[in-house]
Amino acid sequence: xxxxxxxxxxxxxxxxxxxxxxxxxxxxxxxxxxxxxxxxxxxxxxxxxxxxxxxxxxxxxxxxxxxxxxxxxxxxxxxxxxxxxxxxxxxxxxxxxxxxxxxxxxxxxxxxxxxxxxxxxxxxxxxxxxxxxxxxxxxxxxxxxxxxxxxxxxxxxxxxxxxxxxxxxxxxxxxxxxxxxxxxxxxxxxxxxxxxxxxxxxxxxxxxxxxxxxxxxxxxxxxxxxxxxxxxxxx
Length: 235
Prior knowledge:
Elements: E1 8-12, E2 15-18, H1 25-43, E3 48-49, H2 51-58, H3 62-71, E4 82-83, H4 84-95, E5 101-106, H5 110-116, H6 119-123, E6 126-133, E7 142-143, E8 146-147, E9 149-150, H7 154-161, E10 165-168, H8 172-184, E11 189-192, E12 205-208, H9 211-225
Parallel strand pairs: 5-6, 5-10, 6-9, 10-11, 11-12
Antiparallel strand pairs: 1-2, 3-4, 7-8
């Protein structure tokens, strides 16, 4: 359960140091929107912004934005607002984007190749170091600046590049075994596009992106917006 407040756990020269706050999942999702909006404002040459302008740029309610930022200890200044770069740096630190994230993509099919070339990774501090596959037809092929490595070399690749994030772009039946191997190799952050429920050991964070599920939800909303809710056949 997300923490409701900071609790002091240690002291520095007699001053309590609060535990890092565990942010709600919804807040984390919105922080990425705020960061994108702040980067856009910075590119426009703006040094300061108000909660109203930032909320509009991020597509959220200003009251929600102020509440989210207050969880970070960032309240802005009345009549002045937020310093764009300072707030962007604060969110970057909160999300861990000021660290070096080295990514391995497992699966060199269409999706894996597309992900390896996504420019947004590098601009946000994610560096794709390797792409792997088990297919003899793909091993050794060039994918951008990378060469597809054999999945059997996963341990070697993780050690060589000090991989700390793995992206799974593999068939569902291959996902669980790879997650188990990654966990044993010490990779604790995994993003999976595999259409499969995956069990992860304690200490491993797995995010799952199921494109077919998202499309099914989209069609549900599309049908409702047309005023034609689905009906059971033969009713």
